[in-house]
Amino acid sequence: MSDYRIEEDTLGAVKIPANALWGAQTERSRNNFSTGAKMPLEIIKALLQIKKAAAIANKEVSAIDAAKADLIVESIDQLLSLEDTDLRKDFPLVVYQTGSGTQTNMNVNEVVAHVAQRINAKIEILPNDDVNHGQSSNDIFPTAMNITAAMAVDKLEEATKHLINELRQKQAKYWRVVKIGRTHLQDATPLTFGQEVSGWVSMLEHDLDYLQTLNKTLGELAMGGTAVGTGLNAAPGFADKIAEQMSQVYNHEFTAETNKFYGLAAHSGLNVVHGAIKTLASDLLKIANDVRFLASGPRSGYGELNIPANEPGSSIMPGKVNPTQAEAITMAAVRVMGNDVTVNMAASQGNFEMNVYKPVLIYTFLESTDLLTGTMNGFADKMIAGLTVNEKRMAELVDQSLMTVTALSPHIGYHESAEIAQQALREGTTLKVAALKSGKVTEKQFDKWVVPIDMTNIEEK
């Protein structure tokens, strides 16, 4: 038995592996483009769902034979029931192919057609005329892009909420635990650790709001624009039916009510949403760095926080514990920042009626969401959940700080207060010793005015 079969497309005969479900156009792409990651399965599944909805819509308006439509639906259901490892076998194409995603669209068309023939060889299903009926790669691929991006952002939002909830617990637990503040990496006035954490929480709450607000733009589907946005060869109401079906399948609001010329030529929605993802990455980088620096030590650093010992930190230094979850999320963050440049550039490549950087744009977008979703969950569960405060160390640093002198300023003036702080620094004494030595403050006054918890303006929770 031969290891391959011969199929023909408009360019001629092509040898295809005998057991492969794909056809000639997929095989050409497989041979012509072999570099880089495979097209994400999320895109493949979205294309399958869209084509299923298209078959149903075409059946309803009698654009294709009902038996053919039913067979296409049955074939797609069979494919969607497969495990990812089994599904991947017949979708071998890479991201770095044609900029429209046409070859992946044809890969899906050919596989569906071949599965249909296996189910019922008596009904001929053609990849272009039947599975792709009323569609173009130019509108179906960006539709799949927006759907997969919207679902990925939904997961990212959930991960953000989870981290917020873990941080809120720490905020409440340590609301009145006083520590020294730092600005410009130098000592500043006191605050509580709960207050510090509340700033992190607010950063993430703002990021979540940005994502939720902007995610709506991904609900606009290019479906129905076909080749250049005019809708040529698509039946009336076709796109609306698909959008309705996608809304039900993904439990997300999608609409076909958008300018199709925009939908094919621009990916502004993906671009602006990724900007919000980059902003989230920036904030996560700051938060994770704060945590790992505050936990530095345990004896020769700040030492204010205790982090969970998840794994040995060194192959040579016994007992060492490293802030690995912080390192993971900060690495993910810088990757996302780099990805934003790729997304920006790819979104700018709308040449006349079509953007031709679609595959790399959606691949990069999904990488960013996957990286942040995964590392945020890890950071929340394996670092923040087990984080504790070294209250003794925090109290020591507050006692040693010179910036509590700020509480004296309203009573004896800025200049005199500065002289006290500088004298304490020069002589290596505490602020209280220097203040009493200056003769400008009595011990009773110092104890009344320099109360770290009062300096935080803490509100009861």
Automatic annotation (TrEMBL):
- What GO molecular function annotations does the UniProt record carry, in alphabetical order? aspartate ammonia-lyase activity; fumarate hydratase activity
Q: Which UniProt keywords apply?
A: Cytoplasm, Lyase, Tricarboxylic acid cycle
Listed HAMAP family: FumaraseC
Q: What biological processes does GO assign it? A: fumarate metabolic process; malate metabolic process; tricarboxylic acid cycle
Q: Which PANTHER family match?
A: ASPARTATEAMMONIA/ARGININOSUCCINATE/ADENYLOSUCCINATE LYASE, FUMARATE HYDRATASE, MITOCHONDRIAL
EC main class here is lyase
> InterPro entries recorded for this chain?
Fum_hydII, Fumarase/histidase_N, Fumarase_C_C, Fumarate_lyase_CS, Fumarate_lyase_fam, Fumarate_lyase_N, L-Aspartase-like
Descriptive protein name: Fumarate hydratase class II
Localisation: Cytoplasm
**UniProt family annotation:** Belongs to the class-II fumarase/aspartase family. Fumarase subfamily.
